[in-house]
Amino acid sequence: MGVVDPFSVARAAGLELTGKPEGLTLTDGTMELRADFGRMLPRLKQGRLQQELLVKAARAKGIERPWAIDATAGFGEDSLLLAAAGFAVDLYEQDCVIAALLKDALDRAADDPALATAVARMRLHAGEDS
Fold first, then answer.
1. What's the CATH class of domain 35-129?
2. Which residues, 6 or more positions from 75, have their beta carbon under 8 angstroms from its beta carbon?
């Protein structure tokens, strides 16, 4: 099967993917949806990060380089928490529209000094190959 175009898939669903200054946006003309890691910055502060239930549950002592797989990545928020806690994370997202929004969020976050270290540990696998 060939490469699936997320813009065509969104249009077929009656939606539109558009590039905006804030990032790639999915809209129906009245509401907008975009992935944005910037709003998660308060949760990534060191004292608060260690209190996140996901980070507590995933913590394993004695593992030098922890690795996690997020098999239903969505907008990558769980993966970001784990990456900020030091995990290397492979994110898998089958829906090409959601994967496009997530890729855009990862690209923008890589340019943000507050997020760059964490997102450098995250690797997206998108579409049917995932």
1. alpha beta
2. 35, 98, 101, 102, 105
